[in-house]
Backbone:
């Protein structure tokens, strides 16, 4: 087989992989939450006494989609999205077999970012964890490694004043921790 034949085969395989990947939701059934009776037992969602598989949809009273959650074996698996009644996105999360994974984002009703969390494949914070007040002011900027604080951590009040500023090295905290104000220590002569 010549170079052109190998190239064509690679293209064919790439298209086949993309096609199969895009078909993964074709066999999922969609259910509207208010039209079926589900039961949550020990963190597993059941429909007719069977672990739920499919996409569960819910809608606000005005007809706008409220949530879309994918399930497999009764556990969240894939994307979960929620919207406000005005249609603005509220949150976007990923799960694998019921475990939080990847980047999770949430927004305030005014479309400003509310939080951005990163999870490893075991559902632990891993990387940068950020939160904001509704006015857009940063609330928190923490860093994690496999679920444990690691590195620089900062917390602000609504006006942008620092509430906490510390660093975690080998699970020891160094710096301003907590909400108490710092005072200069007077020396006795």
Residues:
């Amino acid at each position: 087989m010549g170079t052109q034949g190998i190239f064509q085969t690679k293209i064919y395989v790439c298209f086949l992989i993309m096609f199969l990947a895009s078909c993964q939701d074709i066999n999922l059934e969609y259910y509207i939450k208010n039209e079926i009776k589900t039961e949550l037992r020990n963190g597993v969602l059941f429909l007719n006494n069977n672990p739920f598989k499919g996409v569960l949809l819910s809608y606000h009273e005005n007809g706008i989609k409220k949530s879309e959650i994918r399930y497999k074996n009764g556990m969240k698996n894939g994307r979960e999205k929620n919207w406000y009644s005005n249609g603005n996105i509220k949150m976007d999360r990923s799960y694998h077999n019921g475990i939080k994974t990847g980047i999770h984002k949430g927004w305030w009703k005014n479309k400003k970012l509310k939080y951005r969390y990163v999870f490893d494949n075991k559902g632990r914070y891993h990387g940068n964890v950020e939160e904001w007040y509704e006015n857009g002011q940063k609330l928190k900027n923490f860093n994690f490694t496999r679920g444990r604080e690691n590195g620089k951590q900062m917390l602000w009040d609504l006006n942008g004043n620092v509430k906490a500023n510390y660093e975690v090295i080998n699970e020891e905290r160094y710096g301003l921790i907590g909400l108490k104000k710092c005072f200069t220590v007077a020396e006795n002569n």
About this structure: Residues 166 and 175 are 4 Å apart (CA to CA). The two ends are 91 Å apart (CA to CA).
